[in-house]
């Protein structure tokens, strides 16, 4: 299994990285999955979210933060497109999918994934590219699931933010791994949606056993006020922000008054 998280990462926080760790532990405990990779995909600048700084900076900060991880990486593909790309297209166009046991893989990730699996498929032994603790043969390329916080499920009910057919494709074809947060009730969000209820077998709800309410928005507010954010985001990211003077009152006004791109399109 490969976990993909799409979002602003503005800036990346320790909580963003914890989502991956929590999700991997949960999926391993089911006894049904082996998570081999986590991918962060920062949103394109054209998303037009208020306070969204340049993808160039968000990618750089994510790379710095993930230097300490041996299984999570940042992928710039989504941010490098000419315009904002809908999440379902990020999943379908730039990552491998399996439909009716037929392997379909895009050109973007063909070589990296083949290099990771070819050593296992032929020998039955772990490839040097991934750390598996037991011999395993991949009958097909790894599945991909969208990793998100519980607030993602809540946004599904926001008028015109999502197309129903896109949500259906995401939960039916790929699946969701949703990590709970204090004050959110993902089970209720599912029950309130006929579509999510229909495919709830493909939605994994992960309990956050240590409450961690780090918010990127609050991090930006603190930085604008000159307050310390140490131990909330990696030191390397703090240094990068200070060096480039990224988060200021001016940057928080960026895209102010603009509609989010999906609201414009839908």
UniProtKB/TrEMBL annotation:
Its EC number is 2.7.7.1, 2.7.7.18. Homohexamer. Interacts with ADPRT/PARP1. Residues 4-220 form the Cytidyltransferase-like domain. It comes from Aptenodytes forsteri. Keywords: ATP-binding, Magnesium, NAD, Nucleotide-binding, Nucleotidyltransferase, Nucleus, Phosphoprotein, Pyridine nucleotide biosynthesis, Transferase, Zinc. The keyword Mitochondrion does not apply. PANTHER family: NICOTINAMIDE MONONUCLEOTIDE ADENYLYLTRANSFERASE (PTHR12039), NICOTINAMIDE_NICOTINIC ACID MONONUCLEOTIDE ADENYLYLTRANSFERASE 3 (PTHR12039:SF7). InterPro entries: Cyt_trans-like (IPR004821), Euk_NMN_adenylyltrnsfrase (IPR051182), NadD/NMNAT (IPR005248), NMNAT_euk (IPR045094), Rossmann-like_a/b/a_fold (IPR014729). SUPFAM superfamilies: Nucleotidylyl transferase. Its main location: nucleus. It catalyses: beta-nicotinamide D-ribonucleotide + ATP + H(+) = diphosphate + NAD(+); nicotinate beta-D-ribonucleotide + ATP + H(+) = deamido-NAD(+) + diphosphate. GO terms for molecular function: ATP binding; nicotinamide-nucleotide adenylyltransferase activity; nicotinate-nucleotide adenylyltransferase activity. Gene3D superfamilies: HUPs. It is found in: Nucleus. GO terms for biological process: NAD+ biosynthetic process. Belongs to the eukaryotic NMN adenylyltransferase family. Pathway: Cofactor biosynthesis; NAD(+) biosynthesis; deamido-NAD(+) from nicotinate D-ribonucleotide: step 1/1; Cofactor biosynthesis; NAD(+) biosynthesis; NAD(+) from nicotinamide D-ribonucleotide: step 1/1. Its cofactor is Zn(2+); Mg(2+). GO terms for cellular component: mitochondrion; nucleus. This is Nicotinamide-nucleotide adenylyltransferase. The lineage of its organism: Eukaryota, Metazoa, Chordata, Craniata, Vertebrata.
